[in-house]
Amino acid sequence: MTNRELEMTGLHEQEKQLEVAEANRQQLINDLRQSIAELESCTSQDPPRTSSELDGQLRGVKSDLRVVSEDMRDIETQQTDLMAEERQQRARKEQAEQKLAQLNNVRHQRMQILAQGDKDTYEAIQWLASHRDIFQKEVYDPVLVLLDVKQPQAARAIESCLNWNIQRTFVCQCRADYDLLTRELIDKRGWRLNVVELEGGRSLDSYTPPMSVDELHTIGFDDYAIDFVDAPADVLRFLCHAAHFHLIPIALRGQADPEQVERSGQFQRYIIGHTLFTTVVSKYGKRLPVTQSRDLKPLRNFAYSAQSEARERAQSELHALAESFAEMEERKRRLKSVYDGHAQRYRQLVETRDRLVEKQRDAHRLVTEWRKAQAVLEAERQKLAREEARPPMAAQRRQISEQRRKHAVELGKLAERLVRTLASLMQAREACDNLVLKSLTYATQLNRCTEAVRERQSALRDAHHALEQTLVTFTQAKEDTLACKRRYEQRMDECDDTLRETFREHYADDTESVDQLEVQLNSAQAALDIPWGVGANVVEAFRARKAKVAELKEAIHAARIEQSQAEAAIQRVEVRCFLTQNLWLPALEALIGNVNERFSAAFQRRSPLLIQVLVAQVKFGFRAMKTTRSGESTFWSSFGTRSSSNCSLDSVNRAVYVLF
């Protein structure tokens, strides 16, 4: 039925689509005719032509552009050559400035002196500059490199106080650095070097002059030699130790009197002006002082004006380079001016060329648009011809109508078969309702079986509880009996022989308790200490007690057997209860659910009010609910209580009767 309806709906949709397609076709034909009319009006005139005058002007402008471009490239080449020449001149200027700076650099001058006078020391300084990180402490360069003379006037006097060996000596702060330096440079490389180490020597403060500075000024001296130089403290320590800089006063202006200095006897060497005085005290006779004097050596190593000719050459070269730079700047300015003129002319030509190209492009665009309109017109005409040649859609619509008629006939036949099927289905449902009513009887019987199983479980639990209480009572009685026996034995041990004999006679007459005889026998046997054994009455009592003990053992054995049987019965009942809970109760729940479904189906068919009945199992009872079609009266009714032991089909029927 559903497929037929879908086919009918599809045919109806196809018919609508055909109508829409026909309307679109007519609209397309009208649009094509209107478009063709517009295109014919646009292409009715002759096609536009390109101007040959524009082509001539464009060729002339392009020729001028090539000439200006070549001139600009020539100027750019000249500028490039000029920049290359400028770079070369700048490199020469940097070299000259660097050379002049080196000539003006005191350290560089002194390094050059070492390079000429002591090549090993010069290379050692370069090696030390690259390997200072391998030493523990500072290793100082030679004195000639590190020493800084504070006043240029004192340079000649300071140099006279230092011989060549002192000037080229390396100073180490510790013994380990001394060993490492000598091993690397002297032992391995074989260089001839002077190296000293000052570890553990005197401090700089311990080298005190013989006279204070104020007193020194009073006799005409300016300062000690140590005050005219600047160097690290360890290097100054070395100068005090090796050259006695703290003991040599210097008078730069020559105001000191040599005789007065000689009479003071404080100094062995001192410098006044450009003269070095040395005073020696005779070791023989009257020990008179003898003073010798000599002129200071010309200034060589500590000079500030050495290599003056090289400095003048460097300065003249810098001056010539400056003039060359000025000339190149003027050339660059002229080239830039010419280049800017050509660039302006080039921009003007480019603008003219662009305008001509735009005009030419507009002319070509008009021609292209005319040709494109011709092509579009031809395509529209062909499309209109194809649309007009298409057959009409009336035949397709007739075919769809015929298919719809056939489907309508088939739907009528299908409806007749459906009516007959519904009649047979009603009969089948009536038979099903009868089967449901029969199944309620089986549900009632199953409920009764469930209640019987529950009662049996309750009885078994009561029996199991009583048996456990009996065992507890028996165990307590046995413990009490054993306690009485131990107490009796203790008392018999404590009593005397007369009391034991009296109790034995009394116990021989008393045969009511076998347990008492056993206790008396044990106490009597424990008390008697005779070699000929026990009496006949004691033996009889012991036999009777033994028989009673055997009887009690049999009773206990029988009770244990009965206990085992009871436990086995309890275990079987528990197994049955487990099976009932896991097998029968789920089946009962399923049956009740099936009954609810059948009830609902039956009452929906038979009741005009469409009343829904729901029966649910509650523990020890059932619960029913009624819902009408309008939904206005919905309530729950419970039948049976938790304490009731039977809830049969009659209860269910009664619940249904109350609901309806």
TrEMBL record:
Query: GO CC terms for this protein?
Result: nucleus; Smc5-Smc6 complex
UniProt-annotated stretches for the region Disordered? 383-402
Q: Does the keyword field hold tRNA processing? A: no
Q: Does the keyword Coiled coil apply?
A: yes
Query: Which UniProt keywords are present, listed alphabetically?
Result: Coiled coil
Name the residues that span the membrane.
none
Q: Which GO terms describe its molecular function?
A: single-stranded DNA binding
Q: Which GO terms describe its biological process?
A: double-strand break repair via homologous recombination
Could you name the domain of life of the organism this protein comes from? Eukaryota
Instruction: Please identify the protein, giving its name as recorded.
Output: Structural maintenance of chromosomes protein 5
Q: What's the source species for this entry?
A: Malassezia obtusa
| High-level lineage | Eukaryota, Fungi, Dikarya, Basidiomycota, Ustilaginomycotina
- Gene designation per UniProt: SMC5
